[in-house]
Amino acid sequence: MAENKRAASMEATRAKLIKAARAAFADKGYAGASMDDLTAQAGLTRGALYHNFGDKRGLLAAVVNQIDEEMAHRAHTIAQGAGHDWECLVAEGAAYIEMALDPEIQRIVLLDGPAVLGDPSQWPSQNNCLAVTRTAIEGLIDKGLLKPVDAEASARLLSSAAFNAALWIAASDEREVLLPKAIAAFRALASGLLAEPEARSRDRR
């Protein structure tokens, strides 16, 4: 019982710190967010931050992981209404790209995230997304809807294309102009994985 209470208390502390950091990073950016300010906002001490996340960078990683997982869930939900399996897969990537218009996502995940945490392909949240995409591609290959290329390579290329398109948009001053161009290019690239036209026709029936 005591161990359960301790675990619940630690989880509550982590949640408070992540919530405060998420607000601070979105408002001031990673560099501008003071550890003292965000711990004070959470009603906690620097010691709590160090104990739970190691340092400010570790806290950013936790915030990025939370937001990135929310993005993946949102994109998946949006894609469910796209139609057949192939369109769901492409719509999920397009939805992820479109989230680059969200100011919080722009600043934390797409600008500060790679600058501070390094290669996004190594983030746990991105690896989770990659596994889901790979499974979807394997299913489409088994159905004969996609060319029999390596599913892991295909998943990595599709995921990278979507993420880099989002990075491009987030870093631009013309985001609304770039968005439709990025999505159109992403769809064109993804369509190269499709099998022969008759396979596409079967999927639409």
TrEMBL record:
Swiss-Prot/TrEMBL keywords: DNA-binding, Transcription, Transcription regulation
Ranges for domain HTH tetR-type: 11-71
Keyword Hydrolase: no
DNA-binding region: 34-53
Name recorded for this polypeptide: TetR/AcrR family transcriptional regulator
Gene3D superfamilies: Tetracycline Repressor, domain 2
Signal peptide: none
Presence of the UniProt keyword Cytoplasm in the record: no
PANTHER family found in the cross-reference section: HTH-TYPE TRANSCRIPTIONAL REGULATOR LMRA, TRANSCRIPTIONAL REGULATORY PROTEIN
Upper lineage: Bacteria, Pseudomonadati, Pseudomonadota, Alphaproteobacteria, Hyphomicrobiales
Domain of life from the UniProt record: Bacteria
Organism of origin: Tianweitania aestuarii
InterPro entries membership: Homeodomain-like_sf, HTH_TetR, Rv0078-like_C
